[in-house]
Design brief:
The complex is a heterodimer. Chain A is an alpha+beta fold. Chain A is 32% helix and 35% strand. Chain A has 5 helices and 9 strands, in the order βαββαββαββαββα. The radius of gyration of chain A is 20 Å and the shape is elongated. Chain B contains 23 helices and 20 strands. In chain B, the strands form 4 sheets. In chain B, strands 3-2-4-5-7-6 form a 6-stranded parallel β-sheet, with helices on both faces. A 6-stranded parallel β-sheet of chain B has the order 11-10-9-12-13-14, sandwiched between helices. Chain B starts with 7 loop residues before the first strand and ends in a 29-residue tail after the last strand. Classes of the chains: A alpha+beta, B alpha/beta.
Amino acid sequence: MAEVKIDSKVTVVALVENEPGVLNRIASLFRRRAFNIDSLTVGRTHRPHISRMTIRVDAGPEYARKIATNLQKLVNVIDVRVIDNEPHVERDLALIKVRNDDADSRNTITEICDRYPARIVDVGPKVAIIEMVGTEDIIEEFIEQVRPIGIVEMIRTGVVSMGRGTRIHDTNFINRRALVEAASKARSSNGHNV
Amino acid sequence: MVEEAMMKLKGSEIIMESLLREGVDVMFGYPGGAILPTYDAMSLYEERLHHVLVRHEQGASHMADGYARATGEVGVCIATSGPGATNLVTGLATAMMDSSPIVAITGQVPIPAIGSDAFQETDVTGVTLPITKHNYLVTDVRDLAYTIKEAFHIARTGRPGPVLVDVPKDVQNAETEFVWPEGDIVLPGYDPPWAAQTHEIDAALRLIAEAERPIILAGHGIIMSGAMNEVRELAERAQIPVSLTLLGKGAMPEDHPLVIGMMGMHGEASSNLAIQEADLLIALGMRFDDRVTGNLKTYAQNARKIHIDIDRSEINKNVKADVGIAGDLKTVLTQLLPKLEGKSHPAWIGRIRDWLEDSSERDILNYETPGILLTAQVVNDIWKLTGGDAITVTDVGQHQMLEAQYYPHQRPATLLTSGGLGTMGFGFPAAIGAKFGKPDEEIWAIVGDGGFQMTLCEMATAVQENVNVNIAIINNNFLGMVRQWQELFFEKRYQATPMVNPDFCKLADAYGIPNRCVTQRDEIEDAVRFAQGIDGPTLIEFVVEKEEMVYPMVPAGADLHDMKRRPKPGEA
């Protein structure tokens, strides 16, 4: 898709306390400050008390830093990094359900999937589900390829990112891990604070 | 306080014990169903923890705010669930905008009822999320003490602000061993900036050394950080004129020769012109609010900017900083001062003096105004009669700006006013709260007829507690500031600004508050002395000119130097 300028997107990675209501605080902040975001994903990390967010922003690094300094003010946000031009791995996952009700479409699907890091994970007499994992732009490209067959439904997880090599965005965690654990110990029962 | 070893207490008692351990001796509140267990526990603590019964929860939040602003300590307010808690909202938003540390404790419906639209249930943590620094819903009594300690820690550290703790009724009733968490609060995601890095200090020093027309923009952060001496030393050693924000008044004594007045929409022309001509702004604990910058595109275009603030997100938010330092002001200036070299800028200061002279020629106090009473005269006479040393608490509007112009403040935290949110109804209850924090100070609530009527029910609170607060109502039978805008920008269509008011003195009589009404300037002194002589609340109504204007004025969004000025006497 020509109008998607991947280059202009910046990624913000945030480590947050895994507590109820944290996502609400972050969503509320974005709404209140009128921050426009492209996608937001949250997932667990290897540490039970900490979740990791990847926020894609369709704007310059200056804007991303504004988001980062505001995110950092939230008490439940442990650390925030802006990934700008540094080398990193990013992945998006799409599940695409397409028409599969004639020989033509079946052939086309198989042929397209061979050319991309995509695979068919469910096949039925009428529709098939394709799973596609890759960078945002390659997924966009893939979607355009299968669109003529007839997309029935589609879901994408949004981008997750991780810096290459020793660009570890969990930097402070070594110092802070003790803090996080002490904090959750101090609260007699974990995760009761909203 | 109870002995700590293995003591089982109810949640309600834990709230009281925790407040005591945080050094609280007064709280402002209003009871109701979901907070009743906590009110019941108060009876055990009456002597050490005084509860002030307000007449509307908004008053409680403003009182806690006034207490906090006057003392620098955390103010506490308390309310029941649902409407009690939602009535706190305006006060919380006011405190949030002006970085005032308060802790609000609210009752909530019992945990099993949460989410069922129970009687007086409101999602208070949801409602207050964007207007608190942080908030909590405590769902386990074992978390209560730690949560309250955490709430106070968050409220008073870093950039201070309001924190709300919502406590369901069954948590207040549940029992557990009370253990006060000793030691520091541990919060992995909360680490306010403190000191500057050496290269930041060096960069700031370099800009100061190179500047020929520097100016310090002194904000509220100076007062909250306690950096008054450091700012003064910076200004004196490098001979830098100081312009104050509204909430920065008192950050430097206003009779200091380097202080050139308030900045912004109704600031001194000298300040605004100096900012526009400066080649260096040193912004200390202020946030470039639109009311101080005017049009950002033309704001201080010739100036490089040093911005020091404890809130990193303020730096580069509105105005791009050449040197931005996130840190505690007192700490950062203490790092900077030993390396600061003395300087002088006689030509620059001389230029500002000329502007100051021109301003004083236009001063309304120099005009002949026979037969009418002006707000500026009232404020200035109160200033004289209080020796310039009272704590004044204002409401919002013309009288607020005229207070800022005509009551010079010498000490920090002696002007308490809602700057960021501009909350009408703030002044009177905040003055009550301030009096509880500073019982030995003379307190004047200077309020307009509009704003006073928003929270005048607290007169009953003032009487019940015999709070020695003097209320000065500046009555022009108009919503004066709105009227001023209508005069200037809406061709005098006075839509919904004329006010038919009650007889304020009769109203005071009904509440049992001694009162006077003043219509002439020569009556002011008597009335003020009368109020000063009474140990308890008093009310003076000053009937002032109806269509007064506040000058200078930078119209909203206009360039900062594009001020509407009062003509000099003799000119038009």
